[in-house]
Design brief:
Layout lengths: L1 E3 L5 E4 L2 E2 L5 H12 L5 E2 H9 L7 H16 L5 E4 L2 E4 L7 H17 L3 H12 L14 H27 L3 H14 L4 H13 L3 H19 L5 H12 L26 H13 L2 E5 L6 H11 L8 E5 L9 H9 L9 H10 L3 E6 L5 H14 L3 E7 L8 E5 L5 H15 L10 H10 L4 H9 L6 H7 L15 H15 L3 H10 L6 E2 H8 L6 H13 L4 E5 L2 E5 L2 H14 L2 H22 L5 H8 L3 H13 L3 H10 L1 H5 L5 H12 L7 H14 L3 H9 L16 H11 L5 H15 L3 H17 L7 H14 L2 H15 L4 H17 L3 H18 L2 H18 L2 H18 L2 H13 L20 H18 L1
Helix pairs in contact: 1-3, 4-5, 4-6, 5-6, 6-8, 7-8, 8-9, 8-10, 9-10, 11-12, 13-14, 14-15, 16-17, 16-18, 17-19, 18-20, 21-23, 21-24, 22-25, 25-26, 25-27, 25-28, 27-28, 28-30, 30-31, 31-32, 31-33, 32-33, 33-34, 34-35, 35-36, 35-37, 36-37, 37-38, 37-39, 38-39, 39-40, 39-41, 40-41, 40-43, ...
InterPro entries: BTAD (IPR005158), HTH_77 (IPR058852), OmpR/PhoB-type_DNA-bd (IPR001867), P-loop_NTPase (IPR027417), Sig_transdc_resp-reg_C-effctor (IPR016032), TPR-like_helical_dom_sf (IPR011990), WH-like_DNA-bd_sf (IPR036388)
GO molecular function, one term: ADP binding
GO biological process, one term: regulation of DNA-templated transcription
Length: about 950
């Protein structure tokens, strides 16, 4: 038998309600349950039933009520008389209040050992025992007051301890709304406010956290005349100073620090002191002359402190940017974040960083200082978990900045560095045999500047240390820079100028011309952009080899082949030489023309069987392509600008992100509407808006093309009318898209365009699947597979298998999963993140219905992260529908309801059906909904 007082009084036997009687028997039972197994005197019970003025026959009436209660409980031994009253014999397992107290104790035991998942599980079970207000019908009776107060307090403690466990599990998004409501109900309960402050801070809302403290303090002072407790004041202090004690406790993940190709020499003191500075945050700037080793020191500090940042350590190199380039784009690219609907790129970056704990290294800020400072100021103000470590020749001038001038190496450390690098050039180098004092002289004369020392050490393959030291006496090598700058800068300039003067005339010309490349180049680009009419290709290779041998250019192996890179300082020196030669404008034009032609070749190549080779060849040129487009816009050259942006639709858009779609929008502003490529540029721009979830913008951009259609061979994603059909499909219009794609199938057949045919057949199958008539799409999907295999194009083959898997997933889920997994693998092989993502998503959705729910949960988390990283909000909303359906399957109904309400509020269909009488709940934006989905699935999968 079960006795329940955590809500309306209730007794059940084998889950069947037991009729206790009217108000008097119920009050009698309640009074006995408040003190189970304890004798309650007859006088006390009489007072409970009739107050201070009982009737003359009260004792006889009490005995009658006891008799009725015994009959209702079906066991006379339950309610026994012992002088001077009665006792109810129940076990703790039979009374919900006792069960609640027992579970609270168990949860505290798990909390003491750090088992916070179990804490949440146990407290969820305990709080589920509550069905309303404890002993609500007896709240005005004296016997119930103390018990109501005791149990209500324990209930609130359980809520607080559950929230504390969720905070320890970094499930901050889940608790903010709940805490906000609790703080409003209990405005002077300090623990709740302190927890709300922590949750708000960790979700990027520092100012709201401080406001919560101010409201608490004002209420305490006004109502009680006291200040907040020391514990609450400490949380306030931590929020104010961005104390790392408030950071999430997740295990370290993520980051893009490069592998260190050479040993790190010296700087032990700087490493230790900078480690302390970084721990203090929020912004540390390493300043100093070019070549002093700022970048290498920053990377070393970041590597040493990787474990301190749960969301990783990320390096963003700003050196490839032009002076007017947007810094936000570069930071977003480094983080793998794509622009979000209705946000600028800078706003997108801030939103992404707001709830994360990471170290962001911004390298070489000096030439984009105003833009870098503005972005960093926003990060410092709004992203409490992010520490910025910047390198620049001067301070950023941002509030809270710690400026750390980087000194040269000591002579001894510089000598060690020289020997290390000299042995890289000449393994048998022995400073003792070659006059070690000469090495020390070189290091002293070069002021311990690492870049200068490394350039000097590279000469060891052709000189002795003594010969290098003798050359340093040449005054021409020491006056390459202006006398007004610091001596160290003169030494560095002298070292670079000296290395430059050691080049042949042809090598000097090539060195200066190679400075036009934003992020290096391969041999083909070097030959095309930097060649001289009277020199053959072999001569260009020989000159480039000379630059590599003399450490003026670095050769790096990549998946696309060898790339040739220049250090930022050397590139700056080369640009100056190029301007002095009067070749800067000519080379900029050559550069833009070459990369436009490369993009056109790649656009054709990625539509054939050699898609992977063209992807590997072109993706490393992202910075060069950006610089080329900027140059074409600056030159007001719509012809080349349109050729470039319309060629990048499949090369970059589906693999890197949607930045090239923004370029297409800019190109439309300078292009004549009657240009043949205008319609393609409109399609590219519209597709980017569609990916970002901006359907209105997509319609507007597509409409600019009018009724015109692109020519045969256009990128698959660049047809304006296709975008309009996609918008309609995602907005719930199931008829127009099917008519459109059916007509386009016929057009593709007439034009004998196999890639277009695969694309249109794929969409016919998708439309039938969305219309819940997948059997009607099987023929189109089968044909798309046949045609795609004939083309040999990996993306086409991926699309076709996706389509066939989609229409077969209900009738033959195992076959469908195999097809979807193959589609994902094919897309991944050619680094096509969009097709890879939708294939992953559909496979996860299929597993969510037909497979192991734990495996499906983990797969859907991967998909959530995929779309969050790439910024495709359209697909992320679709993915949340699949998540909501799985949440219902695994019993996470509260979280499924949150996603349902959020989907509906965003105008998206939901697979969840809520009871019309269900109470209202929170409605989240996309980022909040993704947070709830990721947290719920991850927690459930970890314990399934």
């Amino acid at each position: 038998m079960q006795f329940r007082i955590l809500g309306p009084l209730e007794v059940t036997a084998d889950e069947t309600p037991v009729a206790v009687g009217g108000p008097k028997p119920r009050a009698l039972l309640a009074a006995l349950l408040v003190a189970p197994r304890t004798i309650v005197s007859a006088d006390r019970l009489t007072q409970v039933l009739w107050g201070d003025d009982p009737p003359p026959e009260a004792l006889n009436a009490l005995r009658a009520y006891v008799s009725r209660l015994r009959a209702a409980l079906r066991d006379p031994a339950r309610l026994v008389y012992r002088t001077p009253g009665y006792a109810l014999e129940v076990t703790d397992d039979e009374v919900d209040a006792a069960q609640f107290v027992r579970l609270l104790g168990i949860a505290r035991g798990h909390a003491a050992t750090g088992e916070y998942e179990r804490v949440v599980e146990v407290l969820d079970e305990a709080l589920a025992l509550w069905r309303g207000d404890v002993l609500a019908e007896f709240a005005d009776l004296d016997f119930a007051v103390s018990e109501i107060v005791r149990l209500d307090e324990l209930r609130l403690v359980a809520v607080e301890e559950r929230i504390e466990a969720l905070l320890q599990l970094d499930r901050d998004v889940e608790v903010v709304t709940e805490l906000d409501g609790l703080v409003r109900r209990f405005p002077v309960r300090e623990r709740l406010t302190a927890q709300l402050m922590r949750a708000l801070y960790r979700t990027g809302r520092q100012s709201d956290a401080l406001d919560a403290y101010r409201r608490l303090r004002a209420r305490l002072v006004e109502d009680l005349g006291v200040e907040p407790s020391p514990q609450t004041q400490e949380v306030h202090r931590q929020v104010l100073v961005h104390d790392r004690a408030l950071a999430p406790s997740r295990a370290p993940t993520g980051g893009n620090l490069p592998r260190r190709p050479t040993s790190f020499v010296g700087r032990d003191t700087e490493l230790a002191r900078l480690g302390q500075a970084v721990s203090g945050g929020p912004l540390v700037t390493l300043t100093g002359v070019g070549g002093v080793g700022k970048s290498r020191l920053a990377v070393e500090v970041a590597a040493h402190h990787r474990a301190d940042f749960p969301d990783g350590v990320w390096l963003c190199e700003l050196a490839p940017l032009a002076e007017t380039s947007p810094v936000g784009q570069a930071v977003a690219a480094a983080l793998g974040v794509q622009q979000r609907e209705g946000r600028s790129m800078e706003q997108t970056v801030i939103e992404y960083l707001r709830a994360r704990s990471m170290l962001l290294v911004l390298d070489n800020c000096e030439h984009v200082l105003p833009a870098a400072a503005r972005l960093v100021a926003e990060v410092v103000a709004h992203c409490p978990g992010v520490v910025v470590l910047a390198t620049s020749r001067e301070a950023l001038g941002v509030e809270g900045e710690q400026v750390w001038p980087v000194p040269p190496l000591s002579v001894d450390a510089a000598a060690v560095l020289f020997v290390h690098r000299a042995r890289s050039s000449r393994p048998g180098f022995d400073p003792g045999r070659e006059l070690g004092s000469a090495v020390l002289e070189i290091c002293r004369r070069l002021d311990g500047l690492p870049l200068a020392i490394e350039l000097a050490a590279a000469r060891m393959r052709m000189m002795t240390a003594a010969e290098v030291a003798q050359r340093l006496d040449d005054s021409r090598l020491l006056t390459g820079g202006p006398r007004t700058v610091q001596p160290r800068h003169q030494s560095l300039t002298a070292a670079i100028d000296w290395s430059y003067r050691l080049l042949t005339d042809a090598e000097q010309r090539l060195f200066a011309r190679m400075s036009v490349f934003a992020s290096g180049a391969d041999l083909a680009a070097v030959r095309a952009v930097c060649s001289e009419p009277d020199h053959d290709d072999d001569g260009a290779l020989d000159r480039l080899t000379g630059l590599v041998d003399k450490s003026m250019v670095a050769a790096t192996a990549t998946t696309g082949g060898t790339r040739y890179l220049m250090l930022a300082t050397l590139r700056s020196f080369g640009r100056q030489r190029l301007r002095e030669r009067g070749e800067d404008l000519v080379l900029a034009r050559r550069h833009a023309t070459y990369f436009t032609e490369l993009a056109e070749a790649a656009a054709a190549g990625v539509q054939g069987p050699d898609e992977r080779a063209w992807v590997d060849r072109t993706l490393p040129e992202r910075d060069n392509l950006r610089v080329a487009f900027d140059q074409l816009v600056a030159d007001h050259d719509p012809e080349l600008a349109l050729r470039l942006v319309t060629s990048l639709a499949e090369v970059l858009h589906l693999r890197v992100g949607y930045e090239s779609a923004i370029w297409a929008e800019h190109a439309l502003q300078i292009a004549p509407i009657d240009h043949p490529l205008f319609v393609v540029a409109a399609g590219v721009a519209a597709r980017g808006a569609w990916n970002r979830g901006d359907f209105a913008g997509a319609r507007h951009l597509a409409a600019r093309a009018g009724d015109r259609s692109p020519a045969r061979g256009t990128a698959r994603i660049a047809y304006p009318a296709d975008v309009l059909a996609d918008v309609a499909l995602y907005e719930g219009d199931l008829d127009f898209p099917l008519r459109h794609w059916t007509a386009e199938v016929a057009t593709a057949r007439r034009c004998d365009d196999p890639l277009r045919l695969v694309w249109t057949l794929y969409y016919v199958a998708v439309c039938h699947a969305v219309r819940r008539e997948p059997w009607l799409g099987v023929a189109a999907a089968l044909e798309s597979v046949q045609v795609a295999d004939q083309t040999g194009n990996p993306t086409a083959r991926s699309m076709a298998r996706y389509a066939l898997g989609l229409v077969r997933k209900k009738t033959d889920p195992e076959v469908a999963l195999a097809l979807l997994d193959e589609a994902a693998a094919l897309a991944a092989q050619v680094r096509n993140f969009w097709w890879h993502g939708i294939a992953m998503m559909e496979a996860a959705a299929t597993r969510a219905v037909h497979g192991d729910p734990a495996e499906a949960a983990r797969a859907l988390v991967d998909v959530l992260d995929h779309w969050d990283r790439t910024g495709d909000r359209t697909q992320q909303w679709l993915n949340l529908r699949y998540v909501a359906r799985l949440l219902v399957r695994i019993g996470a109904h509260a979280q499924a309801a949150i996603l349902h309400r959020s989907l509906v509020a965003a105008g998206r269909p939901s697979p969840v059906r809520l009871d019309l009488d269900a109470p209202p709940g929170p409605v989240l934006d996309l980022d909040g909904a993704v947070g709830v989905a990721r947290s719920t699935l991850s927690q459930w999968a970890a314990t399934a």
